[in-house]
Write a structure and sequence with these properties.
This protein is of the alpha/beta class and 210 residues long. It has two domains: 118 residues, no CATH class; 57 residues, no CATH class. Helices cover 47% and strands 9% of the residues. The longest helix has 18 residues.
Length: 210
């Protein structure tokens, strides 16, 4: 990416979590872009839930590129598109909703459930940011309760709706949106081309696999 473009454009990774967002963030840093604090972004999930985007927009002024919550959640990309004209958006996806769901549940099982699918109490008691944060994010994002936690239909429907809505929003703006599956052989080349990098070999690591 040219110096001028990197100063004037924002790069927003808006794919749902467990689609390679950590690797994308690292790739953007490898490309020389400043990456917004994930910790700060995640703390704004309650603003997102209330559809109060002022602090999210203000946070987006702090760096050049952003990934994960709240940027990976529905509606945020629309506000950012209006707030930062000329920015680029990256929708990372998996092969299908089954693969994404399995990865999401497996990740929670690994870090929270201690090799079993977590319960609602597990999420409520887990310490990340603060006790109960993971439960709040899951509840607010998917609209679940104690009985529907990890409901396959609810989770998959959310993933498909988000991807469809993003594609529809940018339907006639192909230069502004890159839809990418990081498992594809050409993913790195496509990402480099989208970002306007002259040399993009080796910028895309594979991190946080589950």
């Amino acid at each position: 990416m040219s110096e001028r473009a990197s100063q004037n454009q924002k790069i927003f990774c808006i794919g749902r979590n467990k689609t390679g967002t950590t690797s994308l963030g690292a790739a953007l840093q490898n490309a020389g872009l400043t990456l917004g604090s994930q910790n700060t972004g995640e703390s704004l999930v309650y603003d997102w839930a209330a559809r109060k985007f002022d602090r999210i927009v203000e946070f987006a002024r702090s760096a050049q590129a952003f990934q994960d919550v709240p940027f990976s959640l529905p509606y945020t990309y629309q506000i950012l598109d209006h707030s930062f004209p000329g920015s680029k958006f990256i929708l990372s996806v998996r092969d299908n909703e089954d693969q994404w769901y399995a990865s999401a549940v497996r990740f929670h099982t690994k870090i929270i459930g201690q090799n079993r699918i977590p319960t609602a109490d597990d999420l409520k008691n887990f310490m990340y940011h603060h006790q109960g944060y993971v439960w709040d994010v899951t509840r607010l994002t998917y609209g679940i309760n104690e009985e529907t936690l990890y409901d396959e239909k609810i989770f998959k429907s959310h993933y498909l709706r988000h991807n469809y809505a993003v594609r529809e929003y940018f339907r006639y703006r192909p230069r502004d949106l890159l839809v990418i599956n990081l498992a594809d052989d050409q993913a790195e080349a496509r990402l480099g081309s989208f970002l306007g990098l002259e040399s993009f070999a080796g910028i895309l690591p594979h991190l946080n696999k589950s």
